[in-house]
Design goal:
Blueprint: H1 4-12, H2 27-37, E1 49-54, H3 57-64, H4 72-77, E2 80-87, H5 94-97, H6 103-108, H7 111-135, E3 139-143, H8 148-155, E4 161-170, H9 186-189
Antiparallel strand pairs: 1-2, 2-4, 3-4
Length: 194
């Protein structure tokens, strides 16, 4: 089991960040996040997530034009905002990723299943992305509040990738963190079915 400090870093003391220190995130750190998250499980090892890391001022301006008013400053001030996307044509990679079974034929023959698989598993990988970023010492600010069609037209044109959610990453300004909001108890959220 990991130690208490790791649990605090990943879960109990981690917060969503909305304000950022003026400290860069390196391309090496972005690679490190991906190299950690890629090992986590997805259905049929499908790994449908595709990530666009928005870093330059010009790219931030383009993304800021796609988000709700409350997210504009978050996008502009974060060192990086990742667009966590899902490759709707992920089945093309299945012969490589899951050779024991013809998953490509299964997905190509059932578009609804393919869409559901892409969404569910890119969401899972987005969660892994958040934990990987925290594990290497970065803070995160996941967000909805964006025009998905506009993001897709701006950043994924000519591809089969669609945006799932956004996640800013960097070094958070911890003086701007609000007090933690309550969470449901185990008994309120869970049932043990015998």
């Amino acid at each position: 089991m990991v130690n208490q400090e790791a649990l605090e870093t990943l879960f109990t003391q981690a917060h969503t960040n909305h304000a950022w220190l003026d400290k860069p995130v390196t391309n090496g750190q972005l690679r490190e996040i991906y190299e950690l998250m890629k090992w986590c499980p997805t259905a049929f090892n499908s790994a449908p997530t595709r990530i666009a890391f928005i870093k330059s001022p010009q790219a931030k301006e383009k993304l800021a034009a796609c988000v709700s008013a409350g997210n504009v400053e978050k996008v502009k001030t974060a060192p990086i905002t990742a667009i966590i996307g899902m490759d709707m044509a992920f089945s093309r990679k299945m012969p490589q990723l899951y050779p024991p079974f013809n998953v490509q034929a299964l997905m190509d023959g059932n578009p609804a299943l393919a869409e559901e698989t892409a969404f569910r598993n890119s969401s899972l990988q987005g969660g892994y992305f958040i934990l990987a970023a925290r594990a290497i010492g970065l803070d995160v600010g996941p967000m909805s509040g964006f025009d998905a069609d506009k993001v897709n037209e701006t950043f994924f044109v000519g591809t089969q990738v669609k945006a799932n959610f956004l996640c800013s990453i960097g070094y958070g300004d911890h003086t701007a963190i609000k007090p933690r909001l309550p969470r449901l108890t185990f008994d309120a959220a869970c049932a043990i079915v015998l």
